[in-house]
Amino acid sequence: MGFNAIEDRFLSKEEVFTVSDAQAFRQLGNAVVPHVVEAVGREIFRTLEKQ
């Protein structure tokens, strides 16, 4: 998801999130892998083309 690239910019892992753990987990929970979105979109288009 690219989180490693973000974490590599900081000296320690604790610096990555400046919010509480609960808020950080809430934000991470909203993250979506771009390849999954692409795959779902392709399946939607295939389904619509068959109709």
User: What class would the helix/strand composition place it in?
Assistant: mainly alpha
Reading the helices and strands in chain order gives HHH
Total domain count? 1
Number of strands: 0
Q: Roughly how many Å is the radius of gyration?
A: 17 Å
Distance between the termini: 34 Å
What's the total helix number? 3
Give the biggest sheet.
none
Low-confidence stretches: none
Tertiary shape: elongated
Helix content: 55-70%
Q: Strand percentage, roughly?
A: under 5%
User: Would you tell me the overall average pLDDT?
Assistant: 76
Describe this structure in words.
By secondary structure, the protein is mainly α. The chain has one domain. 61% of the residues lie in helices and 0% in strands. It contains three helices and no strands. The chain has helices at 3-7, 21-29, 34-50. The longest helix has 17 residues, at 34-50. The N and C termini lie far apart (34 Å).
Topology record:
Layout: H1 3-7, H2 21-29, H3 34-50
Based on the model shown, name its key terms.
51 residues; single chain; mainly alpha; elongated
Sum this structure up briefly.
The chain has 51 residues and is mainly α. 61% of the residues lie in helices and 0% in strands. The chain has helices at 3-7, 21-29, 34-50.
